[in-house]
Amino acid sequence: MSAAKTNRKLHRIGALVAALPLLVILVSGAFLQLKKEVAWIQPTTMSGAGTPPSISFERILEVTTGVPEAGVAGWEDIERLDVRPGRGIVKVRAKSRWEVQIDTDTAAVLQVAYRRSDLIESLHDGSFFHDKVKLWVFLPAGLILIGLWGTGVYLWLLPHLVKRRRHMRRI
After folding, report:
1. What is the pLDDT of residues 122-152, one digit of tens each?
2. Residue ranges of the domains in the chain?
3. DSSP secondary structure string, 142-169?
4. Cβ-count burial of 144 within 10 angstroms (0-12 exposed, 13-18 middle, 19+ buried)?
5. Rounded-to-10 torsion of CA 34, 35, 36, 42
6. Sign of CA dihedral 78, 84, 85, 91
7. What pTM was estimated for this model as a whole?
8. Per-residue model confidence (pLDDT) at position 91
9. What DSSP designation does 127 have?
10. Residue 36 φ then ψ, to 5°
């Protein structure tokens, strides 16, 4: 069997095996490229007073529990705090995927919005499905994509190389 036929066969089989995971990776990647431009994906970062943080953690929790959408009753319901001293805010990310942005000077709620970017990121890397899916489906799909790129380049170059050889023989 020739190298070209083997490459075509590997290219075809690899494309079929990796098609669905790669589609998920490509679509979610396109959404992630837009996360700073589209508030539906990731809430726009607001600006507070711009002073160094002057509110306590207790006050942050108190303000966040007062936001019903976030569904926060205590620290166990909070995934992370993202403090932006230069903008004068703290972003409170609840486990419910809601984000509450609080002014670090006045403790005023600046914005409450649902955050989809973390969900899209987990789809993108495969961890949404399961950690084993991430390693045993999405990683191989990525490696297969690298192989598809290599065989595709070879298949694209092959006619050019053949033409060049024919031309060199004539000279």
Report:
1. 999 999 999 899 999 989 988 988 988 888 8
2. 1-39+119-164, 43-115
3. HHHHHHHHHHHHHHHHHHHHHHHHHHHH
4. buried
5. 150
6. negative
7. 0.70
8. 96
9. T
10. -80, -20
